[in-house]
Design brief:
With 276 residues, this protein is of the alpha+beta class. The protein has 8 helices and 14 strands. It has 2 domains: 144 residues, Fructose-1,6-Bisphosphatase, Chain A, domain 1, CATH 3.30.540; 116 residues, D-Maltodextrin-Binding Protein, domain 2, CATH 3.40.190.80. The chain is 37% helix and 23% strand. It has a 7-stranded mixed sheet with strand order 3-4-5-6-7-8-9, sandwiched between helices. Strands 11-10-12-14-13 form a 5-stranded mixed sheet, with helices on both faces. It has a two-stranded antiparallel sheet with strand order 1-2. The two termini are 34 Å apart. The model has no long low-confidence stretch (mean pLDDT 93).
């Protein structure tokens, strides 16, 4: 397990080196699902660096990468979430922040085994911080063990969230939850990298994080890191998080149930038929 974790960390750092060296040199910027869903040449270049680093250490590695062209350019096999083992990579989580020069973006690398993350690394490139975890081994920030907070009430909490690319019903639902919780919490933050958000909860910098409509590469590494730091990590119905989970709720165990109830109540009061 140590070798796999070291590989994940080395790969995240390799991708981060590309992000740092290319800051301000974005190349072509294009959109995907919407005008706010961006991808740059740097996303792809960082992805190539990540997967080549892993492939050099793990001969039979297969990959699920946010930017699918990465595998072809790097000459590595694409995988599937249903594979017995697959590396799940987001080479630039927080592309919009990166494009605008806002200092919050990361590289996220996780190895899934039978659908569950067993190692994960999130490199907060803008802050030069490496978060890492192996299943059953705890979580670290730059090599130092980290743990979640003990805040037990929403009124005591600093929460983090994000906003979806879908600016229709999904955004309306999120705004209903945000408005409900914002009236109660000590503070709310939004920085644009779900991977980093999970790690902030893991490190005790925030008490909880929720978001709708995420992808597995956004959360696979962060979910493991948060869990290994003592967080409860579920979907927004309270079921255990999985790589196929869309929404996510990460919080210390005392706060998690309270937040889950508050989110459910806000969704219901807003007239939405599903939590996500």
């Amino acid at each position: 397990m140590d070798e796999l974790l070291n590989t994940a960390c080395a790969a995240a750092l390799a991708g981060g080196a590309i992000l740092t060296s290319r800051a301000g040199d974005l190349g072509t910027v294009r959109t995907k699902s919407s005008a706010s869903d961006l991808v740059t040449e740097v996303d792809v270049a960082a992805g190539v660096a990540v997967v080549r680093c892993i492939a050099a250490a793990v001969s039979d590695a297969r990959f699920v990468v946010e930017e699918p062209e990465v595998c072809g350019i790097a000459g590595v096999p694409c995988g599937d979430l249903g594979d017995d083992e697959v590396w799940v990579v987001d080479p630039l989580d927080g592309t919009t922040s990166y494009v605008h020069g806002f200092p919050c973006y990361s590289v996220s690398v996780a190895l899934l085994r039978h659908g569950e993350p067993v190692v994960g690394a999130v490199y907060n490139a803008a802050a030069d911080e490496l978060n890492a975890a192996a299943k059953g081994r705890g979580a670290t920030l730059d090599g130092t063990p980290i743990n979640v907070t003990r805040a037990a009430a929403v009124e005591e909490a600093l929460l983090i969230t994000g906003f979806p690319y879908d600016r229709g019903l999904t955004l309306d639902r999120q705004l209903a939850v945000f408005g409900s919780l914002a009236r109660r919490v000590q503070g709310m933050r939004r920085d644009g990298s779900a991977a980093i958000d999970c790690c902030h909860v893991a490190a005790g910098r925030a008490d909880g994080f929720w978001e709708f409509a995420l992808q597995p590469w956004d959360t696979a590494a962060g979910a493991l890191i948060a869990s290994e730091a003592g967080a409860s990590v579920t979907d927004l119905r309270g079921k255990p998080w999985s790589a196929r989970t869309s929404g996510i709720l990460v919080a210390n165990p005392a706060l998690h149930a309270v937040l889950l109830a508050a989110i459910t109540d806000a969704v219901t009061a807003g007239g939405f038929t599903s939590v996500g």
